[in-house]
Amino acid sequence: MELYQKTIHEINDLLDKKEVTVTDVTQAVVNRINAVEKATDAYLSLQTEAALEAAQGLDAELSGRAKRTSLEGIPYGLKDNMCTKGILTTCASKMLYNFNPPYNAEVYDRLSEEGGILLGKTNMDEFAMGSSTENSAYKKTRNPWDLNKVPGGSSGGSAVAVAADTAFYTLGSDTGGSIRQPASFCGVVGMKPTYGLVSRYGLVAFASSLDQIGPFTKDVEDCALVLNAIVGHDAKDSTSLNLEKTDYTQTLKQGVKGLKIGVAKEFFGEGLQPEVRKSLEDAIAIYKTLGASIVDVSFQHLDYALSAYYMISSAEASSNLARYDGIRYGFRAEEYSDLVDLYKKTRSQGFGDEVKRRIMLGTYALSSGYYDAYYKKAMQVRTIIKADFDQVFGGCDVLLTPTAPTTAFGIGEKTSNPLEMYLTDIYTVPVNIAGIPGVSIPCGLDNNGMPIGMQLLGPILSEETLLKTAWAFEHESGLTNLKAPLGTEV
Amino acid sequence: MSLTREDVTYVANLARLEFSEDEVIALADQLGAVLDYAETLSGLDTSKIKATEHVLAVQNVFRADEIESCLTNEEALANAPESEAGCFKVPRVME
Amino acid sequence: MEYEIVIGMEIHIELGTKTKIFCSCPTEFGQDENTHTCPVCLGMPGVLPVLNEKVVEYATRAGLALNCEIAHFSKMDRKNYFYPDLPKAYQTSQFDLPICTGGVVGIEVDGVKKDIGITRIHIEEDAGKLLHESADGTLLDVNRCGVPLIEIVTEPDLRSAEEARAFAEKVRNILEYTGVSDCKMEQGSMRFDVNLSIREKGSEVLGTRTEMKNLNSFRALIRAVQYESKRQIIELKKGHTIIQETRKWDDTKGTSSSLRSKEEAHDYRYFPEPDLVPIVLEPAYIEKIKSELPELPEAKKQRYIDEYKLPEYDAGVLTTTGVTARFFEDAVALYNEPKQISNWMMVEIPPLLKENEVSMENISITPAQLVELLKLVKNNEISGNTGKEVLKEMFSTGKNPGDIVKEKGLAQMSDTGELEAIIEKIVSDNPKSVEDIGAGNEKAYGFLTGQVMKATKGKANAQVANEIIRAVVAKHLA
């Protein structure tokens, strides 16, 4: 196995034994980027020179030091909606084509403190709105398992960088499935933590009450390592939870004996690709052999989740994206007649179609006369969905579902019908509405060799249970650190 | 329910967006379809349900009233498309 | 037909916290443009607000001082609209659950007392400043963005410009006392909007109202109310209907003009601010703030009457502002002569403030200096008239009264030996006066006294001089 193909914990072993240097590791992944990035287009901008320089600096420092932290010297990528001082942060939008933040996202500060080595900023759907990364204003990221297929979205670039071994791990953001769905499509591990667990400071807001940052990794153990670094209270984020520090690797390998895993028929309904169903059934069988008990659970109101999600997320987005007005930063239209025209031209030219659609939907849902019917109603439905999950988790520890109804679809396949694209999020959005954690791990391949993702959900702050459940399956099935059929030179 | 072109134009103005005739027609269709889908919500009686604004019961998060460093004028204006005399510049405002 | 003016007010007050409402930038007024900003108040992508605890405390204090109920549960909301002075394109404010509700403030106009209802007080952020100094555009200064405000909304209980003014003054007085704001109108720390309608006297129904914005002084408030009520009455007399609209007051022209009609009114799309969590205030917190409230003007005035035996008028004047009351109390603490201090503060100090173009806040003399001066007068070391001159000198130089008296040789001549010699000479030089006195004309004493004052350039202690004159004249007559 090549160095760049290894997991973080494998690299950690080599670094700790001084068998390789940080420079070796970084050079390997930079070479890999040079070899395949033009085929996958996972990154919007690269910092490879700075990364190699940082690696050399770190090697010099580490030579005189016995201990290193788990992410020290590990090259990674950040979704381009996390602010990085002095490094362009575009959100894959023309609106922020030249935006150079004078501040860092809290997660970037934390990873820098850990000694992480930033390789670049990854592609995404513009302002994280989308399920295929086709809404990027700059490039189409391709699924390394089939370059004609989408990587999923909105954190498609982050998923692909890990799947194509052009980063050891990446961070994405998940508002309605934007980590889990691309993780599923690309055959990697992707986790959306409990709302409030990871600081949102410096994450360019899409829908504030739903957004959450989380990791993409090659296996479950790496997921725990990255979580350890990014979880924690941040006084700059009022919604950040103030809890005692957890080491997510501690409970990872405890097994699932006696664990109650729920299966709900509402997640196995119409439109589910047969191979996805089959693969999930196989996973259930594996869990049984591992000593978990499988219980039937059911939801009363899951059908309403997608509508509620699109109302809440679009309403919040319409307000969050109002600040892009061409006055203080970012794009400004070249020609305008007066102030109102400056606003309209700038915003109409600076935003892409999907972003404009969501702003329109959200503005409508909040406008005079419609607030009660759409926005308020959605917030009430949110209460109901939450109660549904509470009731389900009264009967099981973990809920097992498909991450998405299908495996990755073709580039351009769903771009003409927004509603059809929205329906691909049907299994992921209820999680954000309830604020609970969810992880997607690979559980097989379909007939075309495309990865299938299994989603594990748990109540608020059940990350340890989810990771141990995920690890047990991964360990037993051997579906770990999957390699896309992408050559060394593409 | 479907969205009229007037609705689209009204909302576009609120959102400070502008669309061509064709775009308005397409948006009325696309947004109408999403709203029609959202109509399923109206089937649910929520009259006695409290709205959930925050999924977690966090409250009273405050900051001490202590001054921290500001950006310099140059840093504040560094990303501005147009500036003059240490200020952001916009077309003349009458109001 | 007799008309009645119905007025409701909205008062915006900048709170005197050190930092802004959602970030740690200073709130200081009058700094260079865009030097008190950070990513949060610039509304940059990805930043988040954290509520300043002092804002909650000050708003609670203001609410208690204005007799409001303090909400156990309140929350922040977003008010969405586009304007260059609003970086996020929404103002973080409070919509349906404000921090204070249902207060009352008593006012008095022409001896008539009246209670004005307060509907609510909410907390929100101030906007930036637009400067019209550029030749071909408008400039934006973000320094003021995020300065904390409270907005006080009244019931439509006010009936005249005088009542509006009395109410505004009372609110300023109370808030300045409680220390939540300096209420400096010239710095925009206190601003008024007026909702005004006209109805037939005796009617219970409210007429169509207009909202007038941008009133930044008491003068503007009075003039705008007078102008708008007159305008509406004229319209009604012509048989026209009043159009519901927002109007902008132009203080230089003394007129108002339509800003936008009801149809053009903003659709603010309020919704709960997802980036901020609810404010939940326990009774113990509210009680604590209540117990820490300073003595408010009404109570203070009564205490001045009871404790210092001051006339009601004096007590009223001295308690008009917290600064004046503090000066008075500091002086009384050093020198227990409340009436003497009151007289000087009410009669002598105001013209000097005016002359020197300063206010009580930045007065150049200290209570201790005033007390030193009053003691000099009381002890007859200088005359009252000299005292006034010394006070004037104190204002312009900041010197201590004792030093001024010494430097200028203003001390009264109370040395009997020296005075006796002068008086002996004057009496000898004016035998006619002595004769007149002998003949029973007491007025001649006045002439002699005048001569003594002339000779001593007014420094003779009048009382001592008179005693000596009488003694010397008696000697001459004997």
From TrEMBL, chain A:
The keyword ATP-binding applies. The active site is at K79, S154, S178. Residues 24-467 form the Amidase domain. It is an enzyme of class 6 (ligase). InterPro entries: Amidase (IPR000120), Amidase_CS (IPR020556), Amidase_dom (IPR023631), AS_sf (IPR036928), GatA (IPR004412). Its EC number is 6.3.5.7. Keywords: ATP-binding, Ligase, Nucleotide-binding, Protein biosynthesis. Signal peptide: none annotated. It catalyses: L-glutamyl-tRNA(Gln) + L-glutamine + ATP + H2O = L-glutaminyl-tRNA(Gln) + L-glutamate + ADP + phosphate + H(+). GO terms for molecular function: glutaminyl-tRNA synthase (glutamine-hydrolyzing) activity. NCBIfam families: gatA. Heterotrimer of A, B and C subunits. Allows the formation of correctly charged Gln-tRNA(Gln) through the transamidation of misacylated Glu-tRNA(Gln) in organisms which lack glutaminyl-tRNA synthetase. The reaction takes place in the presence of glutamine and ATP through an activated gamma-phospho-Glu-tRNA(Gln). Belongs to the amidase family. GatA subfamily. This is Glutamyl-tRNA(Gln) amidotransferase subunit A. The lineage of its organism: Bacteria, Bacillati, Bacillota, Clostridia, Eubacteriales.
